[in-house]
Amino acid sequence: MVHPLCPLYNLIKTHSINNLIIRNFASLKENIKSNKISTISNISSTKSNRQEISNRQKFRQINPPPSILKEIEALKLGKPRKTKISRFATKVAIIGRKKLENKLGKLEVEQEELELPHLTFFAGAKIPSSFPPEKVPEVAFVGRSNVGKSSLINALADTTVVRTSDKPGLTRQINFYAAGRIFNMIDMPGYGFAYVKEEEITQWKELIETYISTRKTLRKIFVIVDARHGIKLADIEFLEMLNKKSIEIQIVLTKCDMVIPPDLARRYVIVKEKLKQYKNAIEVPLMVSARKKTGILKLRKEILYTVEALEKARRAIQKKSILIDDERKIREKDGNNIIKGKKKSNSRRSNGKKENARFKEKMN
Ligand SMILES: Nc1nc2c(ncn2[C@@H]2O[C@H](COP(=O)(O)OP(=O)(O)OP(=O)(O)O)[C@@H](O)[C@H]2O)c(=O)[nH]1
Ligand SMILES: [Mg+2]
């Protein structure tokens, strides 16, 4: 401390006051600056919120055709409605369904039971020279990373042979799966965001493009789109590229189990509208959920038709149902015999008891 009577006192005092003022001014400036930034960010966030709200409002304003809503309800495609867990729950669900039926008509659609042949992995390609020979027709599944391509192939073939993950970027090469010896299903790496290097994504893109441009056996590309988000920028880039090729494409909206039915119908309308720009695209998107296995039969039929195996699959199903019938009849017959056998053994047992009694009598 400097004594107030010291000649240096005043000098130091003014200096420290100046310092204090400077420091305060600096912090004030900083505050103003940060305040300004926060105000700007507030404004921009309100602006984006407003835009978001208006986008959402626009989305809500879409009035989907009742036929789409009906299909969604009938195939149980959307997110299941929450019903109150109470003893009236089933009653509420029945009334709700009846109300919907009054509005939309009978909520039932014919679905053909079809199965795909047994699926096996037979080749993986990181470079075009590793593509296997072109022998049977092929259908390929493309889409953004983590959209659910691999899960969908599993659901379609009723298997778990294809590896899936909740982390984007699991499939890192073009994987070839043989469906019996009839056709191949091709699982592609995803485009867009993935936990991998930018170069690797560019490499995948080139690999996918080479496959699509050169593969003579490729019949159709299913572009898988997340039903919650619709067609994103990465999808548009890809669709633009596909538009220059002469291959048929079909959009499949997946993860439908995560979207409530009216929103799913709206998403369908938007995607259908967007598809008009792409000349090779089939104009109606399909809707599925790999998790709930809904909408799968329709997509199976589409695939089988594409690879010209629909009749074969129908015959296989007929054969299977005949076999199941025969087996049931045999089991029923066996069952009757077993029952008769039981009766026989019962009677044998009772005979045995009588014999035992007689034996005991003799012994006595
Ligand atoms: N709720 C729901 N989740 C799904 C569905 N399909 C896939 N998923 C989940 O989405 C995640 C990604 O699935 P994948 O099948 O691995 O996705 P992918 O498109 O093959 O991903 P990459 O190979 O990384 O491009 C997994 O956690 C799946 O369980 C669906 O229909 N519904
Ligand atoms: Mg995958």
From TrEMBL:
PROSITE patterns: G_ENGB. Gene3D superfamilies: P-loop containing nucleotide triphosphate hydrolases. One of its GO terms (molecular function) is GTP binding. The keyword Cell membrane does not apply. Residues 340-351 have a biased composition (Basic residues). SUPFAM superfamilies: P-loop containing nucleoside triphosphate hydrolases. The keyword Nucleus does not apply. Residues 352-364 have a biased composition (Basic and acidic residues). PANTHER family: EXPRESSED PROTEIN. This is P-loop containing nucleoside triphosphate hydrolase protein. It comes from Glomus cerebriforme.
